[in-house]
Amino acid sequence: MTLEVPSSLQYSLLEFIAHLTAENYDDVPQDLVNLQFLKEDKASLIMKTGALEPLYYFLKQANQGGGGDKVRERIYEEYREKYPGADDEELRTYMRAEMKAQSEKIAEKASGMSQNCQQQMFAFSS
């Protein structure tokens, strides 16, 4: 079974892959719009909040090769350098805490931007 894919979508997918491979992450939000994974009006919000930073981090790791096991090893090694003497369970706790803090920071930025937009719209309509 095959699916007919419009050439514009094929080119968008190739551009997306090229940007990921070249670590040209500034173009990824627009690629996601072109691939219809993200609405145009959300692209700037995604960029300004840093919501894609965790994805970029993982993709940088994956781009170094070696598969999932090697990615995991590199991430643990990075955390071992940050937290010398910590065992794997402690490292996982640090990882979770950092991910949670990053998520909260992204949510705070998005909330602040949303409030700012609402204030601007209110001022404009007054």
Oligomer: single chain
Return the structural class. mainly alpha
Distance between the termini: 57 Å
Ranges where pLDDT stays below 50 over 5 or more residues in a row are 120-126
What would the average pLDDT be, to the nearest integer? 85
Largest sheet, in brief, is: none
Number of strands: 0
What is the share of helical residues?
Answer: over 70%
| Apparent shape | flat
Task: Give the tally of structural domains.
Answer: 2
Q: Spell the H/E element sequence.
A: HHHHHH
User: Using only CA atoms, what is the Rg?
Assistant: 19 Å
> What percent strand?
under 5%
How many helices?
Answer: 6
Structure commentary:
The structure is a single chain. With 126 residues, the chain is an all-alpha fold. It folds into two domains: 1-38; 53-125, no CATH class. The chain has helices at residues 7-21, 28-34, 40-49, 53-63, 67-82, 88-125. Mean pLDDT is 85; it is low at 120-126.
